[in-house]
């Protein structure tokens, strides 16, 4: 049986983290519903159950209860349940159905496996009118139906479509009002010297203060870690941020996931002086800035970890130690990221640029090997060699596009042929309607033979909803010539193609010898099939 865990919100209100909890009574009812479902005919419509919840409170319906209610609904409609897409701790406002982990997989990849989507209530499914409109268009395109347990929604009727649109608009208005209230709370909290909501900066933690209010206090371990980092940065031979992170992790003062960038961001946060801060969105670098109150002075919300003099001297020390890296490229410094990997440690090869005497040097290095595994000094040369190898191996492969084929028409044709065969076979039995004269009997037998040949030649796969691969007339060489390196990199990353870089140090030569090994999955042709994204515009 699952357990419900409790977390204390900043406002002091206890809420339950979402977990599906099944009682003995729930499990007994689930067994009864499954046994009843087993009695349905083989050709019964197939239902996918969508269960979603962001926060579980006393006023919400638990995931287990949602699933049981939806199984009852499916049984009432004569549908067989083929799956349950359970997305818990997911906001319907922020995450549309096609981007949720479980429901998104069903919508994008498993459409042939179900006929209807059942959900408990529309706001459990979507909260934006645009999202609802996109899902309705998808359902109409693929021949699916939406059914709600507590709303009059059924896409097989015009009234049901209109009702879905109206209810979706109401849900969006409710979500907008909630967003407005939350934004108003954050704006108000920024002006107060009390901690009302939000996650405190590193170095502080929340506690219950006077009159039950939430207050910020200094975390002792974080205090020790921050002051040690300041002392290490102020030495005559200052420690690097990488060295600081390793020492803190080894000492147990920070978790094993601490990175250099995270540590530097913590050390540069003016919240360490006890002031309220907000994100500084200018400059393209994650930084925080002090919030000024109505008197144009900083708002103090906690005791300082560093005095202003200590904080400023720390920033000067970090500035002296920091390197002036070249401006970041919007598209990223490394091309074919995730494809080029180190043969020794398996980590990604990334481009690092160093500036020496106004000259910029680029290297492909891995993140785990000592000294970057000697590096690859000419990234563009590596890129060119990779492109040549990929074109040689995969350039002549045809571009196949995945298309959805519905089997409804084929099923009708199969049913017509079977009924016709039965009709003529019955008529040719002794005393049947086709045995009255020899001519009528011969014509009936001839027609029956034709029908049986058509039925034998009938493609049974065409009666199923399925994906088929269709050639669009291009080769991948032409496709990549049109899209450039970016299109090739996206396709190689999608299908799982890797290229191992092996570097052999050459004595007396600065640049090592580079060997490249292209690794292609055996099912690369199936993986290369392009899948149309039905929700691109909606996203």
TrEMBL record:
InterPro entries: DNA_bind_recomb_sf, DNA_bind_recombinase_dom, Resolv_N, Resolvase-like_N_sf, SSR_resolvase, Zn_ribbon_recom_dom. Keywords: DNA recombination, DNA-binding. It comes from the Bacteria. The keyword S-adenosyl-L-methionine does not apply. Pfam families: Resolvase, Zn_ribbon_recom. The keyword DNA-binding applies. Residues 201-324 form the Recombinase domain. This is Recombinase family protein.
